[in-house]
Amino acid sequence: MVRKSHGPRTRTRKKLSRGYREKFTVTKYLREFEIGSYVAIVIDSSSHKGTPFHRFHGKTGKIVGKRGRAYIVEVRDGGKIKKVFATPEHLKEVKVV
Predict the structure, then answer these.
(1) Distance CA 2, CA 33 (A)
(2) I need a surface site. Which of 3, 30, 44, 69 has the fewest CB within 10 A?
(3) Under CATH, which architecture does the 26-93 domain have?
């Protein structure tokens, strides 16, 4: 028998698919965020490097630091606060009222 693969992109066929008009832009990769600002994690499926785990797709969190090119985002997952590492193309700034 063959063992089933449980890689990081399993069961993401609908979640990570994009429309045919959705294209990446260079400005997405060059974005800068302030530490303390709030961001939404929206995975860009065309960029594999720096992709957070697909459980965090659509979650909102606070930027608490930077590591290399990636940002450290604190996200509440269930009852715990977790740190997620994501590059800027997978983040979208959220206005806090």
Answers:
(1) 45
(2) 3
(3) Roll (2.30)
CB contact at 8 A, 36 and 62: yes
pLDDT at 23: 80
Would you say how long the chain is, in residues?
A: 97
Dihedral, 13, 50, 26, 38 alpha carbons, nearest 10 = 90
Contact 51, 43 (CB under 8 A): yes
CA dist 96 to 29, 36, 40, 52, 80, Å? 23, 11, 12, 23, 22
Helix (H, G, I), strand (E, B) or coil at 56: helix
Residues 30-58: tens digit of each pLDDT: 999 999 999 999 999 888 899 999 999 99
